[in-house]
UniProtKB/TrEMBL annotation, chain A:
It catalyses: (S)-malate + NAD(+) = oxaloacetate + NADH + H(+). This is malate dehydrogenase. It holds the Pfam family Ldh_1_C. It comes from the Eukaryota. Homodimer. InterPro entries: Lactate/malate_DH_C, Lactate/malate_DH_N, Lactate_DH/Glyco_Ohase_4_C, Malate_DH_AS, Malate_DH_type1, NAD(P)-bd_dom_sf. It is an enzyme of class 1 (oxidoreductase).
Automatic annotation (TrEMBL), chain B:
It holds the Pfam family Ldh_1_C. Residues 190-341 form the Lactate/malate dehydrogenase C-terminal domain. It comes from Actinidia rufa. It comes from the Eukaryota. Homodimer. This is Malate dehydrogenase. NAD(+) binds at G51, A52, A53, G54, G55, I56, G57, D77, N137, I160, S161, N162. One of its GO terms (biological process) is malate metabolic process.
């Protein structure tokens, strides 16, 4: 029954684009992309105009994919002889589990991950409503398979064989709340979920979104240690949203093109523990002290900005989903062998005297491959002061998390 | 150390999944940027989403914010749009987002728009048919289209609000009354049916759903949805059981998040058409002479003036001919219902 033409879709010839009516020719060239990392160099100098066109449809290939596609302008028939290079399925694709998939972040995050060509299976877990979300998403015509799992009894099945586990589960802030106010509920949720991860997929990358990240990541670490499976290179608190916000606000302020802007954000993921290193923005920007302060404060309070704007209807969900999806995508690329993946994340770290610290890292197949310590050298006076100011608060949050996790467990809530 | 233009590329990976492009367009895309803005100003289109805080509207807004063809994104709703706007405005992609709350801001939301996407309205609950929504959504669509007629009569309108079979004729009547009706610029979004059809057919065939293309014609409700399985690419044939199974499944979905996904793909196609890309063909529910009905969904070619070309139905097999008759009957009455809602 499988159409014999099924073999054709591994052939990513550009002529097939033209002859197709363009109806649903999304990420067709996936198979090509991974075979030409050496082509990356040709396009490393992409300027914006080129990247605008690159963004439109071929950028999902990444820079190397575009090079490959341009190089490989051969007719379909010829391509077929190279069939062995191009496989029927994406050569590597990964299983991603989202724990908390029916929530405000979980749903749009699931949508974005469903759209990723690097995902072969998407496991959605929640305590309620996840069947609907899965049914919904399963209609997207992208290759990943969606499976749903409801309730504690199905959690284990959700996690078997998973490469990346994303945990947005938990309650969001309401106006007037700090992230710490969520601690009691979310700490328990994260503990339970990570216990299952430790049992079922201890080698997975673990992305913690549930707030307060400054505490829930240490909690996760303790749980994994207690189970004897802790790998500090694979446990991440997702702080990508702070980077995204920093990029947006700096670009706005300085009238820069967003595609170029990159601000490293270090420290933690709450209030003053969020430290954007504006002096290391790429491209470099000139900021007065006042501007730097204004931007820093805005970035630190951006989450609260959204909570207030939503007036009780929730916290940042869409931008968080976008940022989290970006981090998932980066992790998958790293797992896939891409040697050029850098993100900021909150991880166990020796960069400072604190046990956990967010900084820019290089991601690889085994998780954190390198920590970019140079971000903390040559800080401005303002940044140096802010760094010292954040440490006590961050330390306290970390300790709160560790203490919670080390408490002897009472009857499960 | 690489700047995270890389990370931006990675998020473009996800969003570009929605932007299939033909390679030959790539070479001249630098020029097309210039073409798309006759009056100068930032390259990119101005898109409004009416109903941006709803179940479809929110993910739709997120995905449109990620689309590099969009320079300005206006999010309008009667509640909660400030929160959604604040949220989305933090995403580090180029489109500038503005929020508009309440009917007295509708006109501000619409002025100067190139594309207006309308998911506004109440969603179906299990057990409801699309027509049950009719009265509420008909009124909403009428109001919103009056705004469009006044503030951006030349915009392309993508109508998602159900029942599409009736709301599109309603929109047409509103525009006619205002003297701004351009049948080439009013499209009922049936993309979801196509997306589903592609997914289910791929499942049955065991192939990659991105490689499957199923034309879906008729309307956007129950039996008015007519997948032309005999015209599937890649060509394949189905047993009677498979045809029944597939047709029924395609006709009976009901979702939100994937609706946003489909709507964004369709909106993106409209923008690429506006930009001057060639070969942009999608199914949509439009004013049509393909059948004797005044509106009908079929493949249309999109371009700078909206719909440039409506494809004929092509050859139908026996099963499809019977399906077409059934579809037309129901479609006729839904269209009539819409038209008379305005005319009363």
């Amino acid at each position: 029954m499988a159409a014999t033409s099924a073999t054709n879709f591994s052939i990513r010839s550009p002529t097939s684009f033209g002859s197709q009516v363009g109806l649903n020719s999304q990420s067709k060239t996936f198979g090509v992309r991974l075979n030409s990392k050496n082509c990356l160099k040709r396009f490393s100098g992409l300027n914006l105009a080129a990247s605008f066109s690159c963004n439109l449809g071929l950028s999902f290939l990444g820079k190397e994919g575009i090079a490959t596609l341009r190089e490989s302008c051969v007719p379909k028939a010829q391509k077929q002889s190279h069939g062995s290079e191009y496989r029927l399925q994406p050569p590597e694709s990964y299983k991603v589990a989202i724990l908390g998939a029916s929530g405000g972040i979980g749903q749009p995050l699931s949508l974005l991950v469903k759209m990723s060509p690097l995902v072969s299976a998407l496991h959605l877990y929640d305590i309620a409503n996840v069947k609907g979300v899965a049914a919904d998403l399963s209609h997207c015509n992208t290759p990943s398979q969606v499976l749903d799992f409801t309730g504690a009894s199905e959690l284990a099945d959700c996690l078997v064989g998973v490469d990346v586990v994303v945990i947005p589960a938990g309650v969001p802030r309401k106006p007037g709340m700090s992230r710490d106010d969520l601690f009691n509920i979310n700490a328990g949720i994260v503990k339970n979920l990570v216990e299952a991860v430790a049992d079922k997929c201890p080698d997975a990358f673990i992305h913690i979104i549930s707030n307060p990240v400054n505490s829930t990541v240490p909690i996760a670490a303790e749980v994994l240690k207690q189970k004897g499976v802790y790998d500090p290179k694979k446990l991440f608190g997702v702080t990508t949203l702070d980077v995204v916000r920093a990029n947006t606000f700096v670009a706005e302020k300085k009238n820069l093109r967003l595609i170029d802007v990159d601000v490293p954000v270090v420290g933690g993921h709450a209030g003053i523990t969020i430290l954007p290193i504006l002096s290391k923005t790429k491209p470099s920007v000139c900021l007065t002290d006042e501007e730097a302060h204004e931007l820093t404060v805005r970035i630190q309070n951006a989450g609260t900005e959204v909570v207030e704007a939503k007036a009780g209807a929730g916290s940042a969900t869409l931008s968080m989903a976008y940022a989290a999806a970006r981090f998932v995508e980066s992790s998958l690329r790293a797992l896939d062998g891409d040697s050029d993946v850098y993100e900021c994340a909150f991880i166990q770290s020796e960069l400072t005297e604190l046990p956990f610290f967010a900084s820019r890292i290089k991601l690889g197949k085994r998780g954190v491959e390198a920590v970019i310590s140079s971000d903390l050298h040559g800080l401005t006076e303002y940044e140096q002061k802010a760094l010292e100011a954040l440490k006590p608060e961050l330390q306290a949050s970390i300790e709160k998390g560790i203490a919670f996790a080390q408490k002897p467990t009472v009857a499960a809530a | 150390m690489q700047p995270n233009g890389d990370a931006n590329q990675r998020i473009a990976t996800i969003s570009a999944h929605l932007n299939p492009r033909s390679l030959q367009m790539e070479e001249s895309s630098g020029l097309q940027q210039v073409n798309c803005r006759a009056k100068g100003g930032s390259s990119g289109f101005r898109v409004a989403i009416l109903g941006a805080a709803g179940g479809i509207g929110q993910p739709l807004a997120m995905l449109m914010k990620m689309n590099p063809l969009v320079s300005a994104l206006h999010l309008y709703d009667v509640v909660n749009s400030p929160g959604v706007t604040a949220d989305i405005s933090h995403m580090d992609t180029g489109a500038v987002v503005r929020g508009f709350l309440g009917q007295n801001q509708l006109e501000n939301a619409l002025t100067g728009m190139d594309l207006v996407i309308i998911p506004a309205g109440v969603p179906r609950k299990p057990g409801m048919t699309r027509d049950d929504l009719f009265n509420i959504n008909a009124g909403i669509v009428k109001t919103l289209c009056e705004g469009v007629a006044k503030c951006c009569p030349k915009a392309i309108v993508n109508l998602i609000s159900n029942p599409v079979n009736s709301t599109v004729p309603i929109a047409a009547e509103v525009f006619k009354k205002a003297g701004t009706y351009d049948p080439k610029r009013l499209l009922g979004v049936t993309m979801l049916d196509v997306v589903r059809a592609n997914t289910f057919v791929a499942e049955v065939l065991g192939t990659d759903p991105r490689e499957v293309d199923v034309p879906v014609v008729g309307g956007h409700a129950g039996v008015t949805i007519l997948p032309l399985l005999s015209q599937v690419k890649p060509p394949c044939s189905f047993t009677r059981e498979e045809t029944d199974y597939l047709t029924t499944r395609i006709q009976n979905g009901g979702t939100e998040v994937v609706e946003a996904y489909a709507a964004v793909r369709f909106a993106d196609a409209c923008l690429r058409g506006l930009r001057g890309d060639g070969g942009v063909v999608q199914c949509a529910f439009v004013a049509s002479q393909v059948t004797e009905l005044p509106f009908f969904a079929s493949k249309v070619r999109l371009g700078r003036t909206g719909i440039e070309d409506i494809h004929p139905l092509g050859p139908l097999n026996e099963y499809e001919r019977i399906g077409l008759d059934k579809a037309k009957k129901e479609l006729a009455s839904s269209i009539e219902k819409g038209v008379s809602f305005i005319k009363k």
